[in-house]
Amino acid sequence: MRLEMSYLSDTGLVRDHNEDYLSCDETLGLVVLADGMGGYQAGEVASEIAVQTVMSNLTELAESATEENDNPLGTHTSVQLEQSIVRANQSIFKAAEEQTKYHGMGTTIVATLFHDNTAFIAHVGDSRLYRLRHREFKALTKDHSVLQDLIDCGYYTPEQARHSPNRNLVTRALGVSKIVNVDVQEQFVLANDIYLLCSDGLNDMLEDIEIYNILSDCQHDLSLATQNLVDAANNKGGEDNISVILVKVLIEDLNQDKNWWQKLVNFRF
After folding, report:
1. With 0-12 CB in 10 A as exposed, 13-18 as middle and 19+ as buried, what is 131?
2. The pTM is what?
3. Cβ distance 121 to 186 under 8 Å?
4. pLDDT tens digits for range 72-117
C-alpha cells in the first residue's frame, strides 16, 4: 500500500511544554500518536514510552518476519497491534511504580497500521482517528472519556458537551493500572482516503466541520493541511498541545504482495 504521510506537533499557546508524542513509518505503514498526562514532565515521558514501544515492537516483528519463518499460527494483525499497546501499558506502569517522580503518569494512544487494503486501528483514551472519504468526514474512534459517557447516557448533546468542564477527563489511559482494555477495529481503505490522527488539543479547539473544511481545501497538500490545522487550533486559543498526523492512500491497487507482512501476521509473541 503506497501512502503519503505528514505530521506536526505544537505546544500551543497556554502550556509551557509539549506532552504529546508521535511517530510515523511509511515503509511499515504505521502511525502512532499519544497525549501524555501526569506531574511535571511525567506526561511526556509516558507518551514517549508508549509510542516508542509500539513502534519498536512492530518494527522488530516485521524484521523477524523477513526471515524464513513458516510458523502457521495465523495471528491477526490487529492482535499484534493490540498486544504492542498492552506492552506499552506495562512499561509505563512499571516506570511509574519504580520512580516517584513518575507516579500517576499516563497517556492516551491512537495507532493505525495500514496493510492489505485495511487500516488496523487501536486506541485508548480520547486521542482520535478521523477519515475523510470523498465528502464524508467521520470519527472512526470513540472517546474513552467522562464526557462521552455523559453523551451516551443522554445527559449532554454533542453540542453541549463542547462547553463542559469535564471534557478532559478520560476513563481509560495507558499506565494507570496493570491491565488496560484496548479498542481495536479494522476498516477497508480506498484510494484517496485521508486519515487524521490527533490529540484532543485539535478537536477541543475546532469543531468537526472546521477540521473537515481545512482537510477538504488542502487534501492535495498534506503538509499545508497539517500546518493549517495546527494554526487554526492556535487561532482559537491553543489551550493544549496540538498534534496531527495525516495519512493519504495514494493508489487503488493497494496490495498484492503480502510476502514479509503475511509472515508478520503469522508470528507468535
Report:
1. buried
2. 0.89
3. yes
4. 323 578 999 999 999 999 999 999 999 999 999 999 999 999 998 9
| Cell reading at 7 | 505530521
pLDDT under 70 in the chain at which residues?
A: 39-40, 66-75, 252-269
- Count CA within 13 A, CB hemisphere, residue 72: 0
* Gyration radius of the chain's alpha carbons: 18
How far apart, in whole angstroms, are the C-alpha atoms of residue 161 and residue 147?
Answer: 7
Residue 97 grid cell: 511504580
- List all residues 6 or more positions away from 155 whose beta carbon is below 8 Å from its beta carbon: none
Q: Which grid coordinates are listed for 146?
A: 467522562
Q: Where do we find the cell 519463518?
A: 69
Closest CA to 125 of 80, 92, 76: 92
What residue has cell string 500546518? 227
Of 232, 209, 225, 166, nearest to 12 by C-alpha is 232
Task: List the beta strands (DSSP E) in the chain.
Answer: 3-10, 20-25, 30-37, 106-115, 118-124, 128-133, 136-139, 183-188, 194-198, 242-249
User: Would you give the distance in Å from CA 209 to the centre of its chain?
Assistant: 20
Measured between alpha carbons, how far apart are the two ends of the chain, in Å?
25
| Nearest one of 74, 80, 84 to 54, comparing CA atoms | 84
pLDDT at position 74, please? 35
Q: Is the CB of residue 60 less than 8 Å from the CB of residue 118?
A: no
What would the pLDDT profile of 171-192 be if each residue is shown by its tens digit? 999 999 999 999 999 999 999 9
Q: How far apart are CA 30 and CA 7, in angstroms?
A: 13
CA 148/CA 158 separation, integer angstroms: 9
Going by C-alpha positions, the residue among 147, 108, 148, 102 that lies closest to residue 125 is 108
